Batch of 4 targets.
Target 1
Amino acid sequence: MYFNGDKLHRIKFSKVNLDTPVDDILDNVRVNAQRHLPQARPYPTNDIRVCLVGGGPSLDDTVDELRDQFDRGHKVVALNNSADWCLDHGIRPSAHVILTARQCSLDWVNWDIPSNNGVKCKYFIASQVIPELFDKLEGRDVYMFHCVNGLGEKEILDDQYLTPYFWVIGGSTVCLRAIGLFRLLGFQFFDLYGIDSCYMGDKHHAYAQPDGEGKETNNVLCAERTFKMSATMVSQADDFMRFVKANGDHFNLNVHGDGVLAHIVSMGAKYYEQGLSSPAE
């Protein structure tokens, strides 16, 4: 929930990208499922630590921690538009995950991420993205994964694949799907960087993100602190609480920075029940 003036509003929590019509997503899945690309599939559980890097403003405060983990050989995974930020700070992602079906994704893969110790970067791309993104990634080490949200994706995928395929659990954002994706791939230890789900001051990202500008924001009470959040950020925080509550026994999660998600984790499990509310409540 969020507070706007003297009224308390409930946000409808979508399980797909909030900025993309469902029909467009289904059309993308239908086209992309015909590509002969390797699919994300289950692997045995391992003890390798994975650093998932979003674009939240706390990246500016935690870059030294992230670089230290990279220097120690931990896997760094760039989410959506954070790959360039990683490279600009001397951090080479081992993988790049893209979920959004928006046209802006084409600007996030303008060049191939350099190899790390001779190992090429792997691109994990959701079947719901625009087909032009797969075209642009031709020749790179690309894997497809699927999000099934009960909107018709399963019927399309069932028609396309004669052999079993696997879909990735999670919520409405790339962060939550990335946790589900890499748990499917066998990883269980996750560090989250730049995944704040709130503004810090007037910043919504650590780098320029034009499509994040001009969004309505509200003050939201979460675990005894008030945060400035957009509707999409509230949706992610709510999905995060639901996701961890349902699946938290299957992975170990450490959220860096001082955003909403880190605060929820630091305050303890009882706040997963309390959720988000208006400061007036």
Target 2
Amino acid sequence: MINFKNKKTLIWDWNGTLLNDLEISIRSMNQMLEKRGYPLLTVDKYLSIFTFPVQEYYKKAGVDFDYYDWDSVAMEFISNYRQNVVDAKLHTDAENTLHFFKRKDMDQYILSAMQQAFLEETVSKVGIHGLFKKVVGLNNHYAATKEDVARNLIDEIEIAPNDICMIGDTIHDFEVAESVSINCILIAHGHQSFDRLKETGAMVINDFTELRQLF
């Protein structure tokens, strides 16, 4: 059994973990699907097919890349998402939980598959940027993988992997944590279902109340 009470540093995923953007992510995709005459996604369908790299998710949503160009489709989704994300708020109890860990004097970081400037913009808009030592995203909008930036962040932090825990909402967050040999907790209130997350073998919880109890 992992003793999370000994952890000194948290690396948070952003989308789905802290930012409740499930509905606006589905809306942004459905705008693109409807434009092309594809069936729209339901919440259950989305939770069952969302994955990284996101191009695979697009394929599962029905997008035919023999007919549509990946770059144009990806940028159209980002354009839709940018317009819709103004409606997204933090998950209930997220800010309280961040302050809980701040009171414990734990260092907190964000590691996201969102493009860096856009990530900083969305974090700043909800007023919590100052709670993190660093906010780290990708250098593009294609959300392929976070593993390389995770390695760079771990090297920069210079803290033993055993002292770090990653908190995310997707299988990819678990894979990223595994790639840098840190523990991971997955919260099933984001972009993938509880059952899918449980298949990783990671600790899976339902909300921030359960998370705080672990620490």
Target 3
Amino acid sequence: MRNIMLGLFFCTQAATVFAQQTYKVSALKQAPPSAASAAIRELISQEGFRIQDANGQNLADIWLRKSIPASEKPSGPKAAVQFPFLADGELIGVLQYQSDGRDYRDQQITKGVYTLRYGLQPVNGDHLGVSLFRDYLLLLPAAKDQTPALPARKQLEAKSALSAGTSHPAVLLLQGAADDASKPVFPSMVRDNEKNTWSVAIPLSILVKGEQQPIVQPVLLVVVGAAAV
């Protein structure tokens, strides 16, 4: 019983420390790292976003794709999918962890450079209760993902699992974000007190097939914290 109580005490202390931590995001006037292939970098913006903790320690840098292909104009969620206009496996951007990070499943992700690709959580009993919607970004090691072409689903999951060194893909929860005047400007950090997570609010540039100009799609990407289940 004493060991159980001590374990609960330390878990509570850790949660308290996490809750007190704050994060910030700023513009990063720096090109994506050379660890990403030339074919990938050609599609990525030359400026990104830097996420830091309250002490100024760099957590991660994110660069977004200049324009992301879409099958239709964004018009809200369809069932449990928030971004049905995105193709499974679509390249969204590049992320660089400045030190070891963790994904939404609380898997450790080694310091390094990763591509970000859109994907949907499988509909099965293993994922019940993880999130309301199925949309995620999968992390793939940049060295293993060198072309922007859409990978087959099995290949997408297998390469993403290499990021965590497990049998499960490495994922970051992707959510919609309102773009009205009452919401924070982009980029910004948004805390979910209930879920004990921090998200970066960033605008995706969506290019609908047949259109000339991209559409701004605000999103929240959970970069700190994990699912409770």
Target 4
Amino acid sequence: MKAFIYINSLSGTGYGEKYYKNYLKEFINTNFSEMVVQNIPCNTNDYKISISDNNENNSLFILGGDGTLSIIIGQILESSNFEELKLSIYICPFGSGNGLAKNLKIDPYNLSINGNRKYIRPLKTVTKEGEKLSFLSQTWGVISDIDTNTEYLRSFGDWRYYYGIVKSIIFPHYYNGVCSITNMDNSIIEIEGNFYFFCSSNAPWISTDFKIAPLSDIYTQEIDILFIKKQLNFFDRLKLIYYLATERIHLLNFVEYFKAKEYNLKLLDYKSFIVSDGEKILSDEINVKTSDKKFLFHCGDNF
């Protein structure tokens, strides 16, 4: 058995390297016969995995956040020229969001090589520049603003988001765009105008502290879409934060919630970015649907 370990020392709170030295290294030595360790960013060749190593007996450990995960898996698929990645994947949550690990109930200090494993189909995000896999969410408006505008506070972990939330309550912004949603029954809805908030996700938690899509299930092929177009007053914005904190955002009468199989989002102004798994998308338009690829992930024992 072979372990491939990718460490993003710049991700989130920067504890990935310490975690590897103080815990993961011993776990790997006990359970695997061989390991390959890479610190990212690294050269393209460092993402290559041989065909003979691409099997479920081997494991891929990713030490970082949600953006690190999607980048590494995308690079491995491209560099190794694989149609399918067969390694089972452990996401060790040391980013600033860590939503995927939250959904999978991963405890990085209680790993088990013989624990639960589940297949996940990520979202495929297509832009003018190409396509990428997204294992969690796409956001636009106030959520993406909070993410991108607090980038310099990554070392503070989830606290950066609370700072961004307070700022968004005091200084709200609205952004113009159009979204075409294909529902699960193949009906199509077109929404255009000024958006305060947009989030699409294939899982309930988009970060450790934020359960934005409470009706979502990471093991289905549905895309949960939530957005707000209403001009919110100060008390509405406070109410939004309260319902978000109590995991009941879907109950607010000004939040629109859809179960979709596909959607297309186009920005009609240039005042904000679309963010996918915590990383900016440098495009004003995306088309998103469930990928036909599936990946095997380790889940927590309490799954």
